[in-house]
Write a structure and sequence with these properties.
The complex is a heterodimer of chains A (512) and B (718). Chain A has 512 residues and is an alpha/beta fold. Chain A is built from 19 helices and 14 strands. In chain A, helix 16 packs antiparallel against helix 17. Chain A starts with a strand and ends with a strand. Among the domains of chain B are: 138 residues, Methane Monooxygenase Hydroxylase, Chain G, domain 1 (Up-down Bundle), CATH 1.20.58.310; 174 residues, Endonuclease Chain A (Endonuclease, Chain A); 167 residues, Endonuclease, Chain A (2-Layer Sandwich), CATH 3.30.870.10. Chain B contains 21 helices and 27 strands. In chain B, strand 12, helix 14 and strand 13 form a beta-alpha-beta unit. The longest helix of chain B is centred in the first third of the chain and has 34 residues. The radius of gyration of chain B is 29 Å and the shape is globular. Chain B starts with 11 loop residues before the first helix and ends in an 11-residue tail after the last helix. The chains are: A alpha/beta (512), B alpha/beta (718). At the A-B interface, strand 2, strand 3 and helix 2 of A face helix 15 of B.
């Protein structure tokens, strides 16, 4: 049958959603039903840093119900994703295990960047409209219970994406104790978030003109303008302000009654409204788009892409690379060198891939590593490897999981540092044997590729990489002096051979 | 003018009584209604009144007990209502018996059915027959109970028919108390229940002229009562019946704050309090005095009955064999043409939405819908709400089969359906055993919506088939109630249907409804919006009208909106079978509103709403009346009819019903209902027309029997 049904489960700070989708090549992605249950997991996490047994039981009960819904639609696959409520809980792995044993559902605890990437894919699932928006300066703002993510797009590419650890539920919890000391709760919220938003503007927005904002989030986002019949819509700034005044001027209880939500939920709505307003003001946008989508749309879209049921006209890998290039530009890396490095690394990778277990995803990681390989220079010329490692570890790169980011950081670090042999109990960086092997292979490729442009002068005119028996033959043609490169190349040959069992050989043509 | 002023509304209880009067008027209609159908109507008025006492009068009594002084929309306190009702009910009962004694009994005799009222009138032959019947059938099941100082007054069961007797000791022996006292001082009270296991109507041997003769069971027992108290002389007997305020939950029709109040005071409630005593008019004063004292009943709760108590036996009389010429010919529901052409229910629904009109059309497609789903390997899930289900429901069996076949079956069973609780629990347990996911209603909300959804995996993906109805999934009432149902596989309705079931499972409400209007929370506003939209059209000079049909109309907000619409110039025509608190013909307020009520052979039960919407007419049907309980305290679904041909069909149904001049009564501005003057008009009996139309729509099939011929084999030929 050409039609697949799929269940996407989204475990948020104050709700658990399931959405059943139908996917087919012909009709694409279609939602069949969406169910939400309220459960404030985030409350445990943000206050206690762990999830209580009571809450876990509540969660497993909900998920048990959801397995029944999955049966009702005979789903052939599912993915359950948890976000900051689990990510920030110290006992998250125990929770995941507990849920699995009780329900058979395996929860993916997403890294922030994975989560945002899925959120971003969910917007992309709207197709043409999305393309139209991101051609001009657009900010995607995703307000969750635990944090806000702001991603800037310009001319069809992602400029930057930043996470601010202030979500609606978190704000409510944080202000909870002195909420009663003021009648102007909205101003209190405003003061709490203002600084972060202004910093963001100064650092990343600079002179960029942002014309529109895309609001995504969850169920709440869709409550804005409270029009049941038209969830997917655009609004002007003025219309938003009318809504804002309406929400902020009312007591949570009134709002709850009006919108037909619980009053507990409505106390989350005010911080969210203030956040949105601040953002709209800081970014100076005119149009607001509410695509009416949720994370579940992104999860399903991602699944559809992987199963090759859906084909996007937007290249998401390019977004990841664009993000990496932007980071490297921020740390004043040489673009020319990086481009040379990437093309050399690509060429080597393509040859060795045939005899290794490397995947195309690994190639993407290698490319990102190349763009970021010397970003640490910005901090210290002496300690480039360590500094680069630290920058990467603390920078969001959209679309990459935490594990992938750690691999990239290590590849960059061992591009110059000595990589010791793997020992049981792992390395100091917490790499397991598989990750260690991947880091070693990518680092070996990068070292060879890097020394081909050691002088940063892009001396190579043409290059080819071939395999000949036990040798990896790298033929370069250059009209310039190539002694330095050649020398360094030889220093790295042993390492590469040890890893791939292939000895790199440099052949230089066209020397004067 | 203040639209909400109490003088602009009728009290709902009094309006209900008007409805029972309309039923009674059918029983009195000697011109059009066949004799035995009149019996049926009389029986209905009686069972209606019983329910009214147990639910509404009981509730008013509760309110008086807790000292509730609030007023209803008509400005009446519970006490005022009780007073007015008691007066009117007494009058009503008087009319019931007048109808029975003066009109029905003589007419029955003429028709060849003699009802012997007093056993003294029996012939020798008849007495001899009864001697034997009493001894063999009746005597073994009687339990006489005597009252004396050592025993408490016996429990007289709610709604049971009883015979009370005064006994005195025989001169020779027997138990004597207070020797030396005069005879009348030693009278004792005894009572015996008329057994409900025996038929109320006892057929006697036919009269010499061939007439059928019957006598009621209580008269037979009276005749032989001496046998029960052998050592006594039976001085007098009388039949009586009590109705108690007992074991019933607080009626959901009451306002929420009131319900809480009553709940709090529930302990004070006089459990088992007698709220009505019906007693033979000719009862001995001493007997009456004892009953009055022991049952602790006020004078206004006593109904002196001139005739047999509890007229529901008339329904049994209707079922006596023969007398067909005095009954409406039985109607066989017509098949539904769309389902005739297609064996496969789902294939038929895929072609187009299908409207079914019961009881004119058969209920079978609804049953088959579930049955076929249970067997279909591509069906993944079946979900259904069940409110009142017939005893041996094929639907329940099909659901159980589906669960056994591994399908996901969810059934919502409403346990709060009046008087059906016990019955419902039994089969709900059965479904659970079969593996269905059974939900027993929602806390504080009665689930009244009628919806079934089948989730099916098909070539093009998941498809949801939905049946939405105005009536219950009950194959036996579907032969008596007029209801409409819609089969559809519309995607938006499927999505909404899923959301309804999710809501019923305790999950969140959906972010939006695509096409369905759902109560509580949303429905009332949706209706108000539709009414106001019509008002706006009228105000801007466009033609505007609302035509709606329902069982009851008593929601004050809706009525106010209708008054506003009427004032704005919207033409409003309503068919309200039962309670209607709206007043017609108030100058400047409701001059544009007309209300009719149809009381026919079938119980009018469908709810249809038609809004003109400036020419882009919109039609809705559903389970909800315009009553606060439907709009605020129940889960109800009102659904749109969208396909053009079906809209026309629904419009036609409503139009025909508004044209009815045989069974329709018109609400007058003084609150009375009057039948239409038929002189010079073509008679329109909407129910009869629908019966004809349903069969006329059935495509004629070639009778295969005509073309088939069996050829007898012949030995000679071979």
């Amino acid at each position: 049958m050409a039609v697949t049904t799929f269940a996407a489960i989204d475990i948020g700070s104050y709700y658990v959603n399931i959405e059943i989708f139908q996917l087919s090549k012909k009709t694409g992605l279609k939602s069949l039903t969406r169910v939400r249950q309220n459960i404030e997991i985030g409350r445990d996490t943000y206050a206690l840093h762990k999830i209580t047994m009571e809450r876990i039981t509540e969660l497993t009960d909900i998920l048990k119900d959801y397995t029944r819904i999955m049966k009702e639609y005979g789903v052939s696959g599912y993915r359950a994703c948890a976000k900051s409520a689990l990510r920030e809980a110290d006992n998250r792995y125990l929770v995941v295990d507990h849920v699995y044993r009780a329900t058979g559902i395996r929860i993916d605890v997403l890294s922030n960047s994975e989560q945002r990437f899925l959120g971003y894919k969910s917007i992309a699932s709207k197709g043409e409209e999305f393309q139209k928006f991101i051609e001009k300066g657009t900010a995607i703002v995703d307000v969750g219970g635990g944090s806000i993510q702001i991603s800037l797009f310009d001319k069809d590419t992602l400029v930057t994406t930043q996470n601010i650890l202030l979500g609606s539920l978190k704000i409510r919890e944080r202000l909870g104790s002195f909420e009663h000391e003021t009648v102007h709760y909205d101003q209190l919220v405003d003061q709490l978030i203002r600084k972060d938003l202004l910093n963001f503007k100064r650092m990343y927005l600079k002179n960029r003109k942002i014309e529109s904002i895309i609001l995504v989030g969850d169920y709440f986002t869709n409550l804005i303008f409270q029009n049941r019949s038209d969830v997917n819509k655009t609004e002007s700034k003025e219309e938003f302000m009318i809504w804002y005044d309406h929400v902020v001027s009312r007591s949570p209880r009134d709002i709850a009654e009006e919108l037909g939500i619980s009053s507990e939920m409505s106390t989350v709505l005010i911080p969210m409204a203030v956040l949105y307003r601040r953002l709209i003001e800081v970014l100076e946008v005119e149009t607001i788009w509410l695509p009416g989508i949720q994370l579940t749309d992104g999860i399903a879209y991602d699944y559809g892409e992987q199963k090759r049921i859906i084909r996007s006209n937007h290249d998401f890998e390019q977004d990841i690379l664009a993000a990496a290039k932007n980071i490297s530009r921020r740390y004043a890396s040489s673009k020319a060198h990086n481009d040379a490095l990437v093309s050399a690394a690509d060429a080597i990778f393509d040859v060795v891939r045939k005899t290794s277990r490397l995947s195309l995803r690994d190639k993407l990681l290698l490319r990102v590593a190349c763009y970021l390989h010397d970003c640490g220079k910005y901090i210290s010329l002496v300690n480039v490897a360590e500094c680069s490692y630290n920058i990467i570890m603390s920078t969001e790169i959209i679309g990459l999981s935490e594990r992938e980011r750690r691999i990239i950081a290590n590849v960059v670090r061992y591009n110059t540092q000595n990589l010791g042999y793997y020992k049981p109990m792992g390395t100091a960086d917490g790499l397991d044997i598989e990750d260690y092997m991947l880091v070693a292979q990518l680092a070996a490729i990068m070292r060879i590729a890097n020394c081909l442009d050691q002088s940063y002068l892009q001396k190579i005119e043409e290059m080819s990489v071939t395999r000949k028996d036990d040798e990896l033959v790298i033929a370069v043609s250059t009209k310039e002096e190539y002694t330095l490169e050649k020398g360094i190349f030889h220093e790295n040959v042993d390492f590469f051979e040890e890893i791939f069992n292939l000895r790199p050989v440099l052949r230089i043509k066209g020397r004067r | 003018m203040e639209l909400r002023a109490s003088e602009h509304f009728y009290n709902r209880e009094l309006s209900w009584l008007q409805f029972d009067r309309r039923c009674l008027s059918e029983a009195r209609d000697t011109k059009i209604v066949p004799l035995f159908e009149r019996l049926k109507f009389l029986s209905i008025t009686s069972s209606n009144l019983d329910e009214f006492f147990m639910v509404r009068i009981a509730s008013l009594k509760d309110q008086v007990h807790v000292g509730y002084k609030g007023v209803d929309i008509a400005g009446m306190t519970p006490e005022m209502q009780l007073k007015e009702l008691t007066e009117q009910v007494h009058e009503f009962v008087h009319e019931q018996y007048q109808t029975y004694n003066r009109s029905l009994v003589p007419a029955l005799k003429k028709a060849g059915l003699e009802v012997i009222r007093n056993h003294e009138a029996l012939s020798k032959k008849q007495s001899a027959f009864l001697d034997k019947y009493f001894e063999e059938a009746i005597y073994p099941v009687l339990t006489p109970m005597a009252l004396d100082s050592s025993r408490p007054f016996p429990l007289v069961r709610n709604r049971s028919l009883n015979i009370g007797a005064l006994l005195s000791a025989k001169e020779d022996g027997g138990k004597l108390r207070g020797k030396g006292k005069k005879k009348k001082d030693v009278q004792e009270f005894a009572t015996v229940q008329v057994p409900s296991v025996l038929p109320r109507i006892v057929s006697l041997p036919d009269a010499p002229d061939g007439h059928k003769v019957v006598i009621l069971l209580e008269e037979v027992i009276k005749k032989y009562i001496g046998v029960l108290f052998q050592h006594y002389v039976v001085d007098c007997t009388c039949t009586y019946r009590v109705m108690r305020n007992a074991d019933f939950e607080i009626d959901e029709d009451e306002a929420e704050d009131l319900m809480l109040e009553i709940q709090k005071q529930l302990k004070k409630r006089q459990r088992g309090e007698v709220i009505r005593l019906e007693i033979e008019e000719s009862a001995d004063k001493r007997l009456l005095k004892i009953l009055k004292k022991e049952l602790e009943i006020e004078e206004d709760g006593i109904y002196y009955i001139n005739g047999p108590i509890d007229l529901t036996f008339c329904m049994k009389m209707y079922s006596l064999p023969g007398f067909d010429s005095y009954k409406e010919p039985p109607y066989t529901p017509a098949p539904v043409k769309e389902f005739m052409q297609d064996e496969d229910v789902f294939a038929a629904i895929r072609k187009k939405d299908i409207l079914v009109h019961h009881p004119y059309m058969t209920f079978d497609p609804v049953v088959n819908f579930v049955k076929q789903a249970a067997k279909d390997p591509d069906v993944l899930a079946i979900k259904q709400t069940l409110y009142r289900v017939s005893g041996n429901s094929p639907i329940i069996q099909a659901l159980a089969q589906a669960a056994e076949a591994g399908k996901q079956v969810m059934v919502l069973v409403e346990l709060k359906a009046r008087f059906d609780e016990e019955h419902n629990i039994a089969w709900a347990k059965m479904l659970e055993k079969a593996g269905c996911h059974v939900i027993y209603g929602l806390l504080g909300l009665k689930v009244h919506s009628k919806i079934t959804m089948v989730v099916r995996r098909e070539e093009e993906g998941i498809r949801r088939y939905v049946h939405l109805g105005t009536g219950n999934y009950n194959d036996s009432t579907a032969r008596l109630y007029t209801d409409l149902g819609l089969f559809t596989c519309d995607d938006a309705i499927g999505r909404d249907a899923t959301a309804v079931f999710n809501m019923l499972s305790g999950y969140s409400e959906p972010e939006r409804w695509y096409k369905l209007m759902v109560a509580p929370i949303w429905l009332k506003n949706d209706f108000l919006k539709l009414i106001r939209r019509e008002s706006a059209k009228a105000s801007s000079g466009e033609e505007a009208f609302i035509r709606a049909k329902m069982n009851s109309l008593c929601d004050p907000d809706i009525i106010q909106a209708l008054y506003e619409a009427s004032t704005a110039g919207v033409k409003i025509d309503l068919l309200v079978r039962g309670i209607c608190c709206l007043k017609t013909g108030i100058p400047g307020i409701s001059e544009n509103i007309h209300v009719r009520s149809i009381v026919g052979n079938f119980l009018e039960h469908s709810r249809i709403f038609w809004f003109h919407n400036g020419g882009d007419d919109e039609f809705f049907m559903g389970s909800a009346d315009w009553m606060p309980r439907n709009l605020d305290r129940r889960v109800e679904i009102v659904f749109p009819v969208e396909q053009e041909d079906l809209k026309k069909e629904v419009a036609q149904i409503l139009t025909t019903e508004f044209e009815d001049n045989v069974k329709a009564h018109i609400l007058m501005s003084d609150g009375s209902y009057e039948k239409i003057d038929k002189r010079g008009k073509t008679l329109v009996n909407s129910q009869a027309l629908f019966c004809e139309a349903a069969w006329a729509a059935v495509p004629k099939r070639k009778n295969p029997a005509k073309t088939r011929r069996f050829k007898p084999a012949s030995l000679k030929e071979s």
